Amino acid sequence: THSWADSGSGESHGGDYLAETKSTMDSLIPIIQKLQDVFQMAGLGKAPVDLPQLIVVGSQSAGKSSVLEKIVGRDFLPRGSTIVTRRPLVLQLINTKIHTQPGGDSKEWGEFLHRKGEKIYSFERIKQEINAETDRVVGRNCGISSEPINLKIYSPSVLDLTLVDLPGITKNPVGDQPPDIEVRIRNMAIQYISNPNSIIVAVSPANADMANSESLKLARDIDPEGHRTLGVLTKIDLMDKGTNAWDMLNGKVIKLRHGYVGMVNRSQADINNGKTVRQQISDEAKFFRSHNAYRSIAEKLGTGYLTERLNSILVNHINKVLPSMCSKITQQLLEKEAKLRELGAPVPSDDKGGVLLQILLKYSKAFADAIDGKLQNLTQNDLCGGSRISDIFHNVFARSLHRIQPFDDLSDHQIRTAILNATATKPSLFVTEDSFQLLVKRQIARLKTPSVQCSELVYDELRRIASQCETLTLELGRFPDLKRRLSECTRDLIRRKLEPTKEMIANLINIELSYIKTTHPDFISSAKAMALAKNQATQQSESRQKELLAGLTETLNSITVAGDDKLPDVPPVLRSQDISDYDKGTSETRIIKTLIQSYFNIVQKIVKDAVPKAVMHFLVQGCRNSIQGELVKSLYKVNLFEDLMSEEPHTKKEREELTKMITVLRKAVKVVKAVQDHSVGA
User: Does the global pTM surpass 0.85?
Assistant: First the structure.
């Protein structure tokens, strides 16, 4: 099938290979080539997936161009004394015997992606176009660029292949080349061969020390085990007399999984004398068949074998990486489509009011649903929305309230002092109600602080819900001014609803302080309180009572009269324990404590029940029921439409890029599906 094999040994082998692998070549490589075209035509800086391809690397004088021309069978690459390949050349070879319909064009031609649809039948013109396209991007000063040139060559004499020819690695800048030319070329090569789905074709001259091979060194840096590297040894005919490449070809010097293939290239003198590529291929075959060192392995050397080997490696590699590649393309498509949906379609100028109203209603509904527990988008890993407000009521607030005890910061001494102060100059037979009211109000007032704090915690939670709803209302991400104004409006509403809530809570406590209802059915009666106090008194040990009485007697006896008619001075500070009648004081204290505890517990239950209700009515439901009207009233104004519905400058560009990428990925999915269908059919 290869015309260059007509006079050589590769004819029957190449023909058998084409016959055996026809079904595979009909689908796999051309379809990957279509993927490459799809990504390249989209103008993407980098393909969204790593495509299987052959990357040709080598030093500037290693003979890369000659190898590629022999694979094609034509002289089509620019030549010169300095670096000529200054942009990657993506070379796609397509066999027209397989892929052309009967009666189609049987000639050889080339097509450039940047001149799509134009067939170039002159390979000299192809060479000129490569030069012109290179100069167009990088100029004539020997600069380089990583932007590839895509060239397809259609011929009945080629096998389906995709190769990427990279600029030759050079050590020293020549002429107008930049000082860091070596680093630039090396970085470009690393960028391409780092693709895990690529096969590295490392071209090295056989007449140089392999230990110094730039291409093998570069390949080993990226593929240290040599699992995806094929070595090509050129200039075998130029090795010193008495030496040969047998050890190198058999991997005894540097081992590679895909091995080595030896080549014999045209010399510059051959080119000057007009020797064609196909003549050189014929002479190459004769050289290997006649050479003592290579005669036994001649069928595994030369251009014919290299082409078939590259084709076989590429096909097998495509089959290997196909599942992960398909998965990645599909995943990226889903991600890009989701992102585009998040950005939304551009808003027509005559529909900005309608879109604005929809966003306001959607946000308001999300806010209400979050409070009601109907919002499905919230996290399932922790409490959120209304459930957090409920937790504030039943756990945070309730526990805080229960921690306040009836006698916190209230000692028996203080109670007794209050009783005596309320009695004043009037001896009392019973405990005065004034002292009870004074003390119980003091304790009830302590319930105000946690009650107000409860409303503040719910206020913070409502702000949290508002922020969550902003995130869940994806459209707000497109309109920064609308999001800012909506956030301000919502926070202002919540803040305004907090004030009457606090006022109501303060009134609830004030109501309890203003009237102590001792007729409350749950309040303990005075008689029962006295009975309890009496029981407690009888439970005291007699020894304790004796000690106390002895102490009191000693205190009384120590008081002496200075003169017959002079009383002792009254102490400047007189405490309740300094007063006599211990039994009566202790009993009255117990009675008061029993009454305080009973009434405080009643009020504590009332507050525990009333405060959450007040917070729900004035703050939570107040915000929930009025947020929609508040937003519409404040934001739905014709003079605000233009400002509120203005997108971020980068959003339009991002939408265009996403749309382009989605189009490319959808095409890629169709192409990949064709590959999968073929694999299933095979």
Answer: no
